[in-house]
Design a protein that fits this description.
Helices cover 25% and strands 48% of the residues. Strand 8 and strand 9 form a beta hairpin. It is elongated and about 105 Å long.
């Protein structure tokens, strides 16, 4: 029997070899074919770049990255093709994404070097935005009709008389970046926004200038600098909300892995209300936020903010705190929707004018948002956000509620 068993074992071994050897040869042949195709795609992309055909080069390098997703050369050349095509924002976002990817940490110096070259080649970036803003209480009128004071019951102007309308928000911003090496840069920028309503008293201009020092590193970013801003109502000279603000700001963010990120932001400034000195004074706030992106592209977020405003008149000075949370997820390949909630409490320092108690406000807000990638305007997707806001105050002047929406679109030049 032993010779028979030996023959059977030998036959079985031969059958196994007969199957394994062709499979190994087939795998080797496929690997060689992929390598040949990759080399051809890279050569085609390089030739297209030299011919100044950036869109064609981007197509070649994108296909090469499908074969070798972590190939640094293909990644850097794809970013260069975006820059050559004038898509500076896209190139910067792509390189920053790679820098923050923990799987690519060994190549961080190359990505930082590519970002510095980007700042040198395209130091100036600009963007524009447009939004329609329909609302039910655009003048933020009190929902109460009278106010009980130490002097008796007073009628509130426009109390309970909400005005609906549609506003238009048009804005632009530009920044000039100076590379300092190792992911560090100086940034000088400015923005200008104009808000228009049919009601002249609601029209205004808002401008801001800033100078920042920015530092990028794998999974982290911090920014700090100085700013000055101006709010101006052109059609109503001397309006009480016109102001100039000067101050400092900073923010920091850090990736924690597994899609999680935390950050801290702070601002300290002096607000000078040009037509109403009683509101002038220093303002400061500190906020902490957290977010997590899941494997299904869902985004969870939460945050807390503490603020302090000190004004010339102490009954306008307050401490404030806010809590907020959000959830966003995709529906299919194109649709994306989310919900956000927030609650704010502001406690004022001294007894309000004409009453014997200090003002206290509670503000609650719920927002729903949706966007569809199939809708495009110059390559960018508009976003619709609608929210309901309730402000409850023990001073009837500041009781209000409103439903407002915003259809917004922005474009990176």
């Amino acid at each position: 029997m032993r010779p028979v068993f030996r023959c059977l074992l030998v036959a079985l071994w031969c059958l196994c070899l007969g199957g394994i050897v062709p499979l190994a040869a087939q795998a080797q042949s496929q690997a060689e074919a992929r390598a040949t195709l990759y080399a051809a795609l890279m050569q085609g992309g390089v030739s297209a770049l030299k011919a100044q055909d950036a869109p064609k080069a981007a197509t070649y390098f994108s296909k090469a990255l499908q074969l070798a997703p972590r190939d640094v050369r293909a990644q850097i050349l794809l970013a260069e093709s975006y820059i050559q095509a004038g898509q500076t924002g896209r190139a910067e976002a792509f390189l920053t994404y790679l820098l923050d990817d923990p799987r690519q940490v060994d190549h961080a110096d190359l990505y930082l070097g590519a970002l510095n070259k980007l700042y040198e080649k395209r130091p100036l970036v600009a963007s524009g935005s447009f939004a329609l803003m329909p609302g039910t209480n655009i003048k933020n009128a009190s929902s109460q009709t009278y106010f009980d004071t130490l002097l008796g019951r007073l009628t509130i102007d426009d109390g309970g008389d909400e005005m609906s309308g549609i506003g238009v928000d048009v804005g632009g911003r530009a920044a000039y970046r100076v590379a300092l090496g190792a992911g560090r840069r100086l940034e000088f920028g400015g923005s200008l926004t104009h808000v228009w309503y049919e009601e002249k008293s609601l029209r205004y201009w808002y401008g801001r200038l800033w100078s920042d020092l920015v530092q990028l590193s794998p999974g982290a970013q911090w920014r700090g600098g100085a700013h000055i801003s101006r709010l101006y109502h052109k059609d109503e000279e001397g309006r009480g909300s016109d102001r100039v603000a000067k101050g400092l700001h900073a923010n920091w963010s850090q990736d924690l892995g597994e899609g999680m990120q935390v950050g801290v932001s702070a601002i300290a400034e002096y607000r000078d209300y040009l037509a109403s000195n009683s509101f002038s004074g220093p303002y400061a706030s500190v906020g902490v936020h957290w977010s997590k992106r899941t494997d299904r592209s869902e985004i969870l977020s939460a945050g807390v903010t503490v603020e302090r405003a000190t004004r010339e008149v102490d009954y306008h000075s307050y401490w404030g705190g806010s809590l907020r949370g959000g959830y966003e997820r995709p529906f299919g390949d194109n649709l994306r929707a989310g919900v956000g909630v927030s609650a704010t409490l502001r406690v004022y320092d001294a007894e309000f004018f004409t009453v014997d108690y200090a003002r206290r406000d509670e503000i609650y807000r719920v927002d729903l948002s949706v966007s569809d990638k199939r809708l495009k305007m110059m390559g960018a997707t508009p976003k619709l956000t609608c929210g309901y806001r309730v402000q409850s105050s023990n001073v009837a002047l500041y009781d209000s509620n409103s439903t407002d929406c915003r259809v917004s679109w922005s474009y990176q030049f």
